[in-house]
Structures
1.
Amino acid sequence: MTSPAAQLESALATTIEEKTARGRTDQLPSTKGWHPGARIGATAELGALLAYNDDGSTGICNLENGRGTWLNLQPHDRKQDHRPYSVWRWTAAYNGRPACLMGRLAPGAARLELHASDGTVAEADVVDGTFAAEIVVDMAGLRHARERLEAHEAASAEGRAEFERLMADSRTEMAKLKVRVYDSAGTLLYDGAAINATD
């Protein structure tokens, strides 16, 4: 199952089925009007597919080994704060996983690139104004993320404090990535940090 439409359908069906079984029918996504957007990790162990609905709803489908497994509804796009894109989700690189950035491009923006300090560049998948990009980069502050977490009981005060430190380190490392956004003519619209304090 590698087509975006099939992955979206699978994620939507699973989400509705599991929420209904738990009696959470007030939180069900709409059953109609969904369209697949940009994606990363189409057949990887873990990936993501952005989705948007005719009614204005947006979401991110979790992908596992090429199958859509869950649809997380997103809040409506935040203000873009002078950037030609809004961020729906970002994930720093840790435990051997690439860093990723996903969201929506502003009208007039056509292409987005992620740039690492070592010169590595990753071009985002762009579909119907949504974008998804991942980049393999060494984030030094997160090299031992798993060991840092496993050194404490998860429910303990120390475990929670270490988790908060890791989140702060993740934000710091992710902000070191640069984004460049271009219009359809190749004109540079934005060149700056991948995320800001409100992402």
2.
Amino acid sequence: METTIKTAKAEVLSTFPFAGNISKDSLEEIINIALGKKLYFQSKEMIYSLTEHLNPRPLEVDFADGSEYNKYWDWRNDIGKWMRNHYLPLWKRINGEVRTIEEACELCANIWMNKIFNVALQDNGAWDDGHVGAAMNALGSVLKINAMSEVSKEMKDKAKEGIKNFYLKNKYGRYFGCDYHPCPELYNILLDAGAPKNKIDDICPWKTYISIMPEDNSVLVHTYQKDEYM
């Protein structure tokens, strides 16, 4: 097993784009640091971060053919292809998945349940945008609190089952999202669970998407403010 991993790592090192711009020892050190990250997204970002000096991002945005800006993104794309085709298989052999797909679907359902039925704050990133933005979020939060008070435990249990089954059925292909209004699939699950039709928009969180990452079954929670991998 140890020999096989060494062989695989040597192949990964030999296929790195622009390998001539960095010593083998330095590149191997970067790969070893990245392999120590237990979430693939963190591992991938570590490689981008530690190799950025090889081709720094130009300050000037210029999409003209042959521009340094375009060359930078071509390099990023080459790194991305290398990671998908060569680095990811090695990372998976060493780290594996963070959870089973069934556990990932359960986690997605639990996060949605918390965001829909427990978190009162509505936030589209506008709290610091002045009076209008803050007032909009405050009103949304009041409407959400009122809507939350009209949902029974039976409704919640049925909604959670529907959300979990959706992810089990679709896995990596589709996911739920809310952009002030829930996507049709989430809306219908809440409606079927018995949530009042006129309260569904109010109770769903703004600017939220939750998906399962195929690389390692981590769960990505995307909001207006940030991306969080779990």
